[in-house]
Every structure is written in C-alpha cells, then in structure tokens.
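The data layer described in this paper is built around a simple, fixed record for each protein. Such a record has a labelled line for the sequence and another for the backbone structure tokens. For reference, a complete record is included directly beneath this paragraph.
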Amino acid sequence: MKRRLICILLCLSMIVNMIPWPAFAREQNNTPTFNDVAPNDWFYDPIMYAVENNIFSGTNNDNFSPNEPMTRAMYVTVMGRIAGIISSNSMKAGLFSDVKPNAYYAPYVMWAVEKGITQGMGNNKFGPDSLITREQMAAFTVRFFDAYGIA
C-alpha cells in the first residue's frame, strides 16, 4: 500500500510539473475603472481602447470625464501619444510663458511646435487650459497629417 501511494504521488508530481506555471496564476484585470464610464455606455469600448493603449488617461484616477470639453493641452497630448512621442522630451525654455517645463503636456507641446502643428496663440502663449475649438482641432489635425505625410 505504501509503495502504491508513493508511486501515485510521484506520478502526480510529474504531471503537475509538466503544466506551465502561468496556468496556475490568477488572471489579473488591469482594465481601469472610472466612476463616470460604465460598460453599457456607448463610448465604453473606445474609451477602454484609448486608455489601454496610452492615448488617453482620464482626468484623474477615478474619472474619465467623457462629457467634458478638451483643452488645447489635452488635444496636443493625445496627438503626441498617437504619434508615439516619448513624454521625456524637454520643453524649450521660454518658448511659451504659460507652459511649465514639468507639466504633463509640455513634451507634447514642444513636439507639436517642432512638427509645425501649432505655433501657439501669440504673445508667447500656448493657452494649454483654453478649450480647444473645432477649428483648432481641424487645423492641428491637418498639420499633423502633413507632418507625417498622411494623405
């Protein structure tokens, strides 16, 4: 009886060792959750795609703010992330008096200026907190396409 038990345990341990370890891992859900985005919202899937692909990140840890307007800083940041710009690019000192070098959008503003996507609003201002108009979005987008040779 003892030999039989040892044989069973040995066979069982051999079988368990043949199973890849990830099969034992619990699946982790890394999908972000927002208080203002529910799975039954028509925009849920596009928002989750954009967040999971680091195009958008939400307005804070708990909210995406899908019904709020975008600022110029937000739009330039989204465009930069779509283009694959690394957020460690540094802002040229003195380019815009209203863009702090450590602002989350500063590297993207610098990229947009270098690519000719924006020149700011004049008077050494970019207007990062100004709401972006449809006209500005269209102009930025056309210049983005031109900069990257997109027909």
Summary: The longest helix spans residues 2-18. Residues 38 and 135 are 31 Å apart (CA to CA). The chain has five helices and no strands. The two ends are 78 Å apart (CA to CA).
